[in-house]
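Loading example: each entry is read as two labelled lines plus one structure line.
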Amino acid sequence: MKSYSITGVMLLLFAVGSFADEKDLSAPSVSLRGFGSLGIACSSSDQINFIRDVRAEGPGRTRSCDTQMDSNLGIQLDASLSNQLQATFQSVFYHRADNSFKPEVTLANMNWNISENYNLRIGRMQSPVLLASEYRNTGFAQPWARPPREVYDIAFSYHIDGIELNRKFSPSNDWRLNLSIGAGSSGYAIPRFYESGTDDVDADFFYGALRSDFGNLRILTSYVRGDVSYSNPSLDDLYDTLTLFGSSKFAKKIAIDDKSFGVGGISAQYDDNNWLIQSEYAFRHSDTFLRDQLGAYLLVGKRMGAWMPYAVVGGKWSESSGIEKYAKTPLEKIALEQLHALDSRKIVSLGLSHNVTDKSVIKIQLDRLFYSDSAREAFRTSSRRETAIHGENTNMLSVVFDFIF
Amino acid sequence: MVVRFRTLFLTGIVACLSLESAKADIPLEVVTLSGIPVSSLSRQDVADLFLGRRQITLSGQTLKPVDVSDPSLRDNFYSQVAGMTSVMVNAYWARIVFSARGRPPPILSVTQAQAMVVSNVGFVTYLPDKGPLGFKVVVRLAE
């Protein structure tokens, strides 16, 4: 289920539904909705480009200010075929890793309400790993300019093609539980390190997520387990070199070739429509050369009429995954040293959002990124092959206008 | 650094657990079409119903909410019932809709919403009223 004909799916949805009379709520119906963001972000760094999930490079070394990284447009068709059956199709335009704005099909699924407490989804969907994972492209639905990458890059959760079963529990009127169990595959392109172009990441995984809503409090815990493959020409050359010098076993050990990984998240949110306090923690482990990663953030926001000032403090750090014990020869140790990016950093963000209309909001956010002296962050550019040794701090100022329609 | 951020995260959890929210004090008027008060539907029930948080059954009938397009009436309703502005309501539904996790209730004019409730057992809406809240919740129950 990896390729979708946008035209074909749209025609299908229109064929089985219709723009029915709104007053006839039992008739099949189709509705068109959308969301979008227009943003500009400026970075003080002249060494490194800011990267937002799988999008093309943002501001920094290549250009001081960027108007594409935080900009997107999403179109969604929803078809209610009956009380039990719904279909959704969503396509998002954004600046992709391959420098194009080709639309990405982010949702294309059927939902079957089996009963009051069970529903089944089949097709393309987002896995509910973190609070904003499923609507990370919908800026209007989020309190910040963009999800903190210190956490959201770890628990990467882009679309999954698969199946998901949901079960609702209500121990009391104030307490609701939702358990989601799903499985499927995911494939996407990321900007290539050091060179122009993109690399493919493919994963097959299953996941479980338990969401608990008690009054104004929401707790979400999730775990993803699967196998991942990542192909890159430079890495392939490295594996070939290791094999040539008698380290084929080590090369196979560290390669990201159908290797197991685990991602987990714990989230808590308090929102009484006055205060918004949100904290998330994510971790990732894989049986590859990648170091284990941990990330956390805390957001505090206070609504004051149409305004909401907010602050975010976060951090990401990496720990040994234990792969070092497999490096026996000097060549293997050097190779691992080169591959191990010490991607540890902290962030402090101050932001202010203002409701422009009841369907649009403007946010201004100042980020201060702190890199540890030993951190080494590779930056991607279309023409350079360099690694920045980073000990300096970076400021980034963003203004984003989010809307829905 | 790891310990510091785990502390940060735990601080956030504790903060979430210890804050409390305020509730509105003016009683919510919920009536049937013939004006009989329905005491078994609380303010929280109505909020949960219109925000799609749970299904509510009354007199053996699963209630179906019908939202109203009149901006001031809608703002007043969600402010009094759920403590939410229209932006918050729209953001709330955006999180659900754009995750394909649900749909908001249909939004009709006051006249259409009233006609819908009159014609269909189990439908619930809110209509303008001269009482202190400015609206009353009207539900059609089986005779």
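The radius of gyration of chain B is 18 Å.
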